[in-house]
Amino acid sequence: MATKAFPTSSSEHFELLRKPPVLALPTTLLFIVSMAGIATIWYLALNAVIPLLAGTIANGLITYLLFSVIHDAAHKSLSSVGWINETIGAIGLFFLFPYAPMVLLRWVHNKHHTHTNGPMDPDRFEHESPWWQIPLRWTFFDGAYIWYFIKHGQNVRRKHGSELIVFYSLLALLFAAALYFGFGWELLMLWFVPSRITLLIIAIVFVILPHHPAIIAQEEDPYMATTMRFGWEWLLNPLLVYQNYHLIHHLWPEIPFYRMHKAYFLKYDEINAQRIPRQKAFSLKPENYDEHFAVRRELDLAQGKGSPA
After folding, report:
1. pTM of the full structure
2. Each residue of 280-308: b (16+ CB within 10 Å) or e?
């Protein structure tokens, strides 16, 4: 059956939003702008036009935007053409987490979607951080993800073992060459430290704010496991790269980030009939914050765990 150029119903329109485009132009544009920005910063810093510290901060902010490209590629929503999706995603990933190939990132991230807020959610590492460990945990959570993969990703390692060995061998050679030719300090200041800045922003935008207080798991109530943020959309849409609609992403992760607001309005009645966590503009807690704990007590009692202290 030929796909209609224009949907004739809201349900048909919604299904079109779920289909990956041949090439997501907003995502591709974000990729081009981010990569051009990173290349420019490297050129300026290596030629002493700008201080290395300025390059560190600039690259940290630019690669935050690049993460949305990687994120959509991990969900195969950047392009319906497999090699295009994987190539763009892999290039972006190399400049943010070169030690985490797409097969690893995709597997760990899908575990987050399956077990959101539950004990097997890899993001528990950030959510359970004591306040005094936040600067360390939120900037080094990539290490926790790799450890999660080592502990639980045996099947993936068996399936992609040869691919991972080749990838890490080439990566080790590349890093060794950079150090041998005297670019160790530049590598630290223009890649590693910026990646810590990016991780901190990702932890806030993708992990903490969209799931706080993170005590209702996806399998327990998918509408309470992730928040929606309302107000100041003119600013928060670009600033959060549409993650103020993060609940939409968890309900339908195949929808590209720039379509999430459209999906919300098409599913407006269905979503707002649920007990969704609603955050206003710049608030940290959802409006029904206390309800989360009431529901948690009910769930624990129903599961025979007793009332939490």
Report:
1. 0.92
2. eeeeeebeeeeebeebbeeeeeeeeeeee
Of 252, 264, 271, give the one whose Cα is nearest residue 19.
Answer: 252
Q: How confident is the model at residue 9 (pLDDT cuts 50, 70, 90)?
A: confident
CA dist list (Å): 24 to 131, 186, 247: 39, 33, 21
Tell me whether residue 220 is in a domain.
yes
Question: Which single residue is written with the structure tokens 């959570």?
Answer: 141
Whole-number Å distance between alpha carbons of 273 and 15: 21
Query: To 10 degrees, the CA torsion angle through 76, 82, 84, 90?
Result: 60
Does some domain include residue 5?
no
* pLDDT score, position 182: 92
Assigned domain for 4 exists: no
β-bridge mates for residue 228, sequence order: 278
Helical packing angle, 25-46 and 82-96, nearest 10°:
30
Residue 309 belongs to a domain: no
The number of domains in the chain is: 1
pLDDT in tens, 12-25: 999 999 999 999 99
Residue 4: pLDDT above 60?
Answer: no
Alpha carbon distance 171, 166 (integer Å): 9
Range of the domain at 294: 10-302
Tokens of 199: 């991780």
Both tokens assigned to 131: 């306040």
